[in-house]
Amino acid sequence: MSTNYLTKLTQIPELSDAELRQLGKVAKKFAFRSNSYYQALIDWSDPEDPIRRLVVPHAEELLDWGDYDASGEADYSIRPGLEHKYPDTVLLLVNNVCGAFCRFCFRKRLFLKGNQETVRDVRQDLAYIRQHQEISNVLLTGGDPLLMSASRLAPILEKLTRIGHVRIIRIGSKMTAFNPDRISNDPELLALFRRTVQSGTQLYLMNHFNHPRELTPQAVHALRLLAGAGVMLTNQTPMIKGVNDQPEVLSALFNRLSFLGVPPYYVFQCRPTRGNYIYTLPLEQAYRNFIEAWRHSSGLARRARFVMSHHSGKIEVTGLTRGHILFRYHRAPNPVNDGKIIICRRNPRGIWFDDFVKVDSLSDTMIEQKSNRTGKPAREQSA
What's this model's pTM, rounded to 2 decimal places? Predict the structure, then answer.
């Protein structure tokens, strides 16, 4: 059965007229997109169904909270579509469409009218990568690169494999969850991946499974095909309120992924992006949930780290004491901060690193916050 894409809430017959009126205001601001395969995973008898929460708009997305670029990606953009934050890694934003639009997306600005951050012609970007021999990792992201045809992806991958110092290509994608037939029914795509691996450049697919119910037989089949093509598989997910914030749900996701040969990589604190308040937990609570899930996981399922993608670097939450929270810079653009441990007084209502520490630009100067920010929306926008 073919997968049909949905871009209007009126294409969802399960929504009542009242819901269509209310949620239509949300979709007008933050675009809706899904597909028939993914919609079929929703249990419409459960108003709190986690799959529904992932793709169907929620009225509280209109709360006035958060920023469109919560991690300051613009400050690391060399040009539209090319970000260089860490010395050995660059990001190419090659697409501004996904198989569906996650309601908690931290790059929802890409889907706003007039946004031009993605790149269609990568020739200048490839020239930049060639000139910077410290770059060994290239991450293709967006949007979802796997929504592109194999013929559009091929020139990018083939040219990257011919740059000697690029040893790893990563593709960030949720297509194995949103529409696994995109992989299973495209032998040209699998052949392209096989050629990429055979060239000597390692190819990783950074999957984006958020909930165990996304690991359907179709998704498992697609993962098996990718592994057979030589692609290394990992998974990353934010902790999303009402979706995977219960430890038993998150540990089930960790374990099932590890059984499939897809070790968990990162669990992210949901970024304070505009519209994301309804999906975000206080940081300390999220960390406790993560640790409890980790305790009930085994072996390779314990490889995940709980991190924030902050403007000043990727910051791991490493512990809680009675009075303090411990952070460590897992990656930092400023090498002075790499590996640095920061110990702060606890703030149970804090949501982001800035609620604990004030970072002066990209220097190593950090000042502990003494305020008790609640992280709550300042006001509600008029409907």
Answer: 0.93
Q: Could you report the per-residue pLDDT of 105-149, keeping only the tens digit for each? A: 999 988 777 676 676 789 999 999 999 999 999 999 988 999 999
**CB-based contact 32:74 (threshold 8 Å):** no
pLDDT tens digit string along 75-94?
999 998 899 999 999 999 99
Residue 156, H or E segment: helix 150-161
On the 0-12 / 13-18 / 19+ scale of CB atoms within 10 A, 169 is buried
Backbone angles phi, psi at 310, to 5 degrees: -90, 160
Query: What's the DSSP call for residue 270?
Result: P
CA gap 230, 327 in Å, rounded: 35
Confirm if 294 and 332 have CB atoms less than 8 A apart. Answer: no
Domains and CATH numbers, the chain: 5-64 (no CATH), 73-380 (3.20.20.70)
